[in-house]
Structure to design on (539 residues):
């Protein structure tokens, strides 16, 4: 029973970190309608930048976020400006092409990371990665708590941005109805660039924590993107709150399952994904259903 | 003519919907475009408003070329569009939605003056100012959309099927409002599936088919033309 409590607690905290990374992906989709297939690669990039700063300059992983987050934001803005916007237009072909473009970005990032760091597994080191604190009768590594607090802080900042700033309101308008936003004079190109930046920043920040808990190499991005996509779909594409709920629930179930069936634990994601697609394809927070429930005018 | 289209070709995803549209819109008039589904009526409006760019052809507004302009530039030129789909943001209040119409205006004093004028023209804005836009009926939402469109004091208003989904009473109110906008000095170009109602209200009628203008002339003549009614609109228009 004690092990189950530990699994729930750590699953909850690390779930928040996955939720952070997945919320960046779903946030990008919600506003721009582009599935960012590079989200996993950006997370690994964030891990490697933290790793390199720690190895070469002795910088603490959380302090390294001062560098990691702006780099990722700029990279996200660059990807939107140089790659995604060049295929701007309307119609499903454009959306499919946008996914292929972000997949190409993922492949490029992975290739560059392989060239620079090689394929050996590495981990980010810090005293709090192994140091533990007592939670009731259990001992939990500090990194899980710090990761949870980081995720809570960044998602909290996102909500403040969206609901307390003028620019955030414009982002919400664009998320709700892109053509209407364009007709009102909203510069969707600028909005999309900012959104990509935020999404990439979330991935990189979460990636730093991921790299502190798991050994990683450039190929880790493939496992990450499949998990993040599963979380985003289960949570409801476009819903940040859905992604966080889904991530926490999935990681808790995975952690508990691992006690009894370590090999089968990773199947939790894929079973949940299959069930979601059959029972509730729109996800936990179905954005389309939310629109339909609203009175006339919701569409 | 305040708006002129010459040989406009435009479409989606490499496929042309407009195949050489020639169209003239007179100042301070109501021009109504009618035609069967797929004729390209809404595409004409999207091409003017900047949602689509013409591949070939010319769009002139007050003598200035509008080709390739984005939506912000078209707004700055004095053209606003009320789209076919509901475009209010349901979580926002009626007042917030109307203010959004002046999104590109930095002068807040000017915005307030416009808002006051719009409230005079559209009493529903003041009456329901604090309510969520999503709580309004379809016709009321359409009126609020019209109100929002006036916040930039446009010269040309593009209306895409304003009567869609409305009951007869609300339809009459919407069309009366369109006439009111024209009487206030605006030029209105609308697309209407309800051809009879649209042409009865309009000064000029335009019949489109397969991406081209088939007929353009006084709305009353088009309304009474039995051949047009049979060919394009399922029966004599005037007989109702």
């Amino acid at each position: 029973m004690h092990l189950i409590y530990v699994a729930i607690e750590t699953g909850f905290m690390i779930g928040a970190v996955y939720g952070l990374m997945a919320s960046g992906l779903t946030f990008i989709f919600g506003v721009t309608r582009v599935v960012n297939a590079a989200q996993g690669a950006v997370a690994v990039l964030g891990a490697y930048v933290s790793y390199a700063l720690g190895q070469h300059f002795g910088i603490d992983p959380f302090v390294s976020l001062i560098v990691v987050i702006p780099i990722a934001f700029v990279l996200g803005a660059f990807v939107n400006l140089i790659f995604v916007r060049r295929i701007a237009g309307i119609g499903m072909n454009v959306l499919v092409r946008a996914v292929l473009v972000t997949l190409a970005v993922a492949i490029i990032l992975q290739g560059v990371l392989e060239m620079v760091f090689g394929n050996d597994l590495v981990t980010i080191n810090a005293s709090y990665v192994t140091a533990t604190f007592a939670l009731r009768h259990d001992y939990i590594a500090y990194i899980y708590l710090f990761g949870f607090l980081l995720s809570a802080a960044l998602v909290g900042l996102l909500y403040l941005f969206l609901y307390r700033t003028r620019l955030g309101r414009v982002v919400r308008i664009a998320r709700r109805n892109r053509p209407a936003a364009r007709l009102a004079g909203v510069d969707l190109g600028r909005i999309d660039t900012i959104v990509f930046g935020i999404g990439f920043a979330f991935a990189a920040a979460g990636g730093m924590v991921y790299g502190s808990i798991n050994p990683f190499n450039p190929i880790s991005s493939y496992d990450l993107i499949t998990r993040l996509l599963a979380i985003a779909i289960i949570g409801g594409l476009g819903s940040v709150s859905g992604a966080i709920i889904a991530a926490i629930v999935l990681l808790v179930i995975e952690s508990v399952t691992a006690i009894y069936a370590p090999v089968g634990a990773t199947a939790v994601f894929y079973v949940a994904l299959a069930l979601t697609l059959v029972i509730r394809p729109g996800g936990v927070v179905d954005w389309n259903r939310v629109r339909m429930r609203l009175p006339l005018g919701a569409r | 003519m305040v708006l002129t289209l010459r040989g406009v070709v435009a479409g989606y995803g490499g496929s042309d919907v407009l195949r050489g549209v020639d169209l003239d819109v007179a100042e301070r008039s109501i021009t109504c475009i009618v035609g069967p589904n797929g004729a390209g009526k809404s595409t004409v409006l999207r091409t003017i408003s900047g949602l689509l760019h013409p591949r070939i052809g010319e769009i002139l507004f007050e003598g200035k070329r509008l080709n390739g302009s984005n939506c912000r530039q078209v707004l700055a030129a004095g053209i606003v569009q009320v789209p076919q789909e509901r475009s209010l943001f349901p979580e926002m209040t009626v007042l917030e939605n109307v203010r959004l119409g002046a999104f590109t205006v930095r002068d807040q004093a000017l915005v307030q003056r416009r808002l006051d004028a719009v409230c005079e023209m559209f009493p529903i804005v003041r009456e329901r100012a604090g309510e969520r836009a999503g709580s309004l009926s379809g016709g009321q939402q359409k009126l609020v959309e019209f109100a929002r469109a006036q916040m930039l004091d446009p010269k040309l208003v593009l209306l895409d099927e304003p009567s869609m989904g409305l009951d007869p009473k609300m339809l009459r109110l919407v069309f009366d409002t369109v006439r009111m906008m024209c009487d206030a000095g605006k030029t209105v170009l609308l697309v209407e599936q309800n051809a009879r109602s649209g042409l009865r209200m309009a000064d000029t009628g335009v019949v489109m088919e397969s991406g081209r203008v088939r007929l353009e002339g006084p709305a009353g003549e088009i309304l009474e033309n039995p051949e047009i009614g049979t060919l394009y609109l399922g029966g004599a228009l005037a007989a109702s």
Confidence is low (pLDDT under 50) at residues 236-240 of chain B. The longest strand of chain B covers residues 15-25. The first helix of chain B runs from residue 41 to 49.
